Amino acid sequence: MKAGTTSAPVPEMLDASAAAFADRAALVHGDERLTYAELREQVDRLAGALAARGLTQGAPVALILPNVPAFAVAFLAILRAGAVVVPLNPHFKEAELEFHFRECGVKAVITDAEGEPGCRSVAERLEDAPELIVDLDSLESGTAPAAPGLDDDAVFMYSSGSTGRPKRAPRTHRHLRAEADSYVAATGMTAEDTLFCTIPLFHTYGMGCALLAAVRSGATLLLFDNPNPFVLQRGRALELIARERATVFPGVPFTFRLMAEAPEEADLSSVRLCFSAAAPLPRPTFSAFHERFGVPVRQLYGCTEAGCVTVNLDEDPHGTSGSVGTPIEGVELRIVDDAGEPLEEGRNGEILIRSVAMTPGYADAEELNREAFRDGWFRSGDRGRIDEDGRLFITGRKKLLIDVRGDKVDPIEVEDVLAVHPKVAEVVVVGVESGVPGEELVKAVVVPAGDCQERELIRYCRERLADYKVPSRVEFREEIPTGPGGKVLRKYLID
């Protein structure tokens, strides 16, 4: 049975699945299990409580939780109330939280006991301090809020690029519904599926290809509790997949590599689809996982601005393992040269995206939008080619983003932090090979102003940036290499 249509906002996906699959497990996390009927009941109750606090009609609500059932409940309740979800990394430091709180003017913050101290500290520095909500069960519900409209904002996602600060990408209920409908149709997900989730739900990948896909199809979302550090938890992950008979597994290359190398035995015969995204999947990882478990890992491609764009569901997963697949319904791709002119089949160029699920542009960035969203096409900053069968192959990036185990790091953001250190005269941040195919490390190249130590700068970054953004190495040089026009020659800083 298909639950819901694109003519209704996101919460009605939950209504449809709760009506059709009331007693089926919606969320599983450790010993906790919520049926679709129970999930809907909790969502409705919390939505009423948020509405009673005036958190309706586009009010931005920061959601800062790990992958726990409360994340799903709060996410859907915020949307039910007509407010806007601002999903943020629970590992963000105070400076990162403050930027996001200020940038979109959050009115409330939903977090847990671990996140409360940092969020409270930030909130107290703001003139219009957001309300902190830590104990969802203690809230008193009010009257049911009015249903949001299809074209009302649903989420504020933040995209990094080459500007030094994340850019707010608003997406509406219509955008999220279109992505969920197309992704579920492409993958054939149904209420019989159990989706094993290790990817963060605050990320576009986890939101669209895990949470919303499960709610849209009526599938069970199996949340992996306490997944970090994954190298120590991979055996438990394999055991959980086998025990719960998981059928769909979205992940990142780092996760699949560690699982392929795990010493524990595991039966993954229930898994029908494995998807890898967020970074290129190295062929050795593809081969090792398939040889070990008999399941091919297929790539998909997406972005913060449009959600899922392509999925590889080719009949020959081995011969096409390097491809991220073909566009899902409602998505168009174009490959262009540096002048923006379309290139013929097989030629390498920049990937342009047009999608019914795509934001129309970044908030408060008219000048940037004229370039990035020209004529309705989003300039992704990725490079690739399309073969004769319409398959997309990613061949590189025009932007400077660094892939750190599936997380994207904007080097300009790290440079901005280090540039204000009193012992740093100049700094350039680059991604360097880690020794593992497809995985990068963050390196800072610094021209010091006086006596300066590597550990001092790393500690300084760790106090201000999420751990995955912190440089693993600091290299000191007498000068930064530049070209005749003064442009930094980053290629000479990578070795």
Descriptors for this entry?
495 residues, 4-stranded mixed beta sheet
Mean pLDDT: 93
The DSSP helix count reads: 13
Q: What global shape is seen?
A: globular
- Structural class by SSE content: alpha/beta
Number of strands: 24
Helix content: 25-40%
Measured on Cα atoms, how large is the radius of gyration? 22 Å
Uncertain runs: 1-5
Strand order of the largest sheet: 11-12-13-14-15
Main sheet: strands, sense, barrel? 5 strands, mixed
Beta-strand proportion: 15-25%
- Kindly report the oligomeric state of this protein: single chain
C-alpha termini separation: 55 Å
Question: In a nutshell, what does this entry contain?
Answer:
The chain is of the alpha/beta class and 495 residues long. The chain is globular.
SSE blueprint and pairings:
Layout: H1 11-20, E1 25-29, E2 32-35, H2 36-52, E3 60-63, H3 69-80, E4 84-87, H4 94-104, E5 108-110, H5 116-123, E6 131-133, E7 153-159, E8 167-172, H6 173-187, E9 194-197, H7 204-217, E10 220-223, H8 230-244, E11 248-251, H9 253-260, E12 273-276, H10 283-293, E13 297-303, E14 307-311, E15 326-327, E16 331-336, E17 349-355, H11 366-372, E18 378-386, E19 392-397, E20 402-404, E21 407-409, H12 411-419, E22 424-433, E23 440-448, H13 454-462, E24 473-476
Parallel strand pairs: 1-10, 3-4, 3-5, 5-6, 9-10, 11-12, 12-13, 23-24
Antiparallel strand pairs: 1-2, 7-8, 13-14, 14-15, 16-17, 17-18, 18-19, 20-21, 22-23
Helix pairs in contact: 1-2, 2-3, 4-5, 6-7, 9-10
